[in-house]
Amino acid sequence: MNLDELRKDTPGCETKMHFNNAGASLPPLPVTNAIQEYISFESLTGGYEAADARKNEIHEFYSSTATLLNTNADNIAFTSSATSSFALALSSIPLQKGDAVLIANEDYISNQIAFLSLQQRFGIQLLRAKSLSTGGLDLEDMAMQINKCRPKLVSVSHVPTNTGLVQPIEEVGKLCNEKEIPYLVDACQSVGQLPVDVKKIGCDFLSATMRKFLRGPRGAGFLYVSDSILRKKLAPLFVDMRGAEWTGPDTFEVRMTAKRFEEWELPYALVMGSKAAVEYASNVGIENIAARNKILSDLLKAKLNAIELKVLDLGLNQSSIITVEMPGKQPQEVLEYLRAININTSTSHRSYAQIDFQSKKVDWALRISPHYFNTEDEIDSLIQALEDLND
């Protein structure tokens, strides 16, 4: 990994120390160049005509993303975000009143709200697996609830947004596959920083975004859909002409690929930017990225402990998200102080993680998310800033 070259590819590094990669990372030049080039081409050619002329390049988004996840291009749909991907997948499950859905306490806020909305509107049962005292979902409790309640769907966030915890999604996949239960994984915070192999996970759906650790554009994401779901012809509730063919006045047939989860209107410039982001990450190497991120995260946590700031993250396996308690400080005060000296971070709040933060007895936490292009010197600068803030 040539860090100097990677940072030259990232113009934002010249003016910012960016530790908010779990929010929106700094895109490398190939990503912004791809978007700008396509927009310019479209402005000179016409929207429909540009898409037709570049159809082979556009298709490379699907093949590149499929390679990243160890699947096929027909199993990938382009979407506007991870939340959109999640909602599209969820809407394809034919849930009825009384059906049980099993999730984890640490799952992402928008996913929790989506299930609560289904519970209020349609009367599903929302079940949550217990959490271990050491962090992460309790697989024994999840297995017990699967056997007892026979849920119609199991859903888990691979890396929750409010903690560096990495959930045991492959083990959950084995439990689901034994009982043939549809399995939805939110990989919003893991794709781009950790290896993600849908065959090893055994999931039916996997939702992700481009703007975080993949370093792609905002307003772009993707959804993996398994062959099993495609064969069953499960489709989003409001499938459109991209996802289905109108075969008669009162009939339609869904497409036999994951494109049934897409909308006809796609932002092709963002598709091209997303293609560039996936290819960039793949060229750097996801294993290399994961190894570098662990070095940075371990160093950062050690230095936080040295200045007596409490790291809140639990779990045997942890990611490049570090949440820190800041006693006596207000979140906006901390953010503004750091931004004033060109350090980007983020905050997570009790309203984002009602169950997790209640158990940790905090109302908010500073979220620091280093990525492979960060340097050890930048970590030293961040630590010094936090130490000065606490004086």
Describe what is shown at a glance.
Helix content is 43%, strand content 15%.
Keywords:
Aspartate Aminotransferase, domain 1; alpha/beta; Aspartate Aminotransferase, domain 2; three-stranded antiparallel sheet; 391 residues; seven-stranded mixed sheet
Can you describe this structure?
- This protein has 2 domains: 3-19 and 285-390, Aspartate Aminotransferase, domain 1, CATH 3.90.1150; 29-283, Type I PLP-dependent aspartate aminotransferase-like (Major domain) (Aspartate Aminotransferase, domain 2, 3-Layer(aba) Sandwich), CATH 3.40.640.10.
- 43% of the residues lie in helices and 15% in strands.
- With 391 residues, it is of the alpha/beta class.
- The protein has 15 helices and 14 strands.
- The chain has a 7-stranded mixed sheet, with helices on both faces. It has a 3-stranded antiparallel sheet with strand order 11-14-13. Strands 1-12 form a two-stranded parallel sheet.
- α2 runs antiparallel to α11 (268-284).
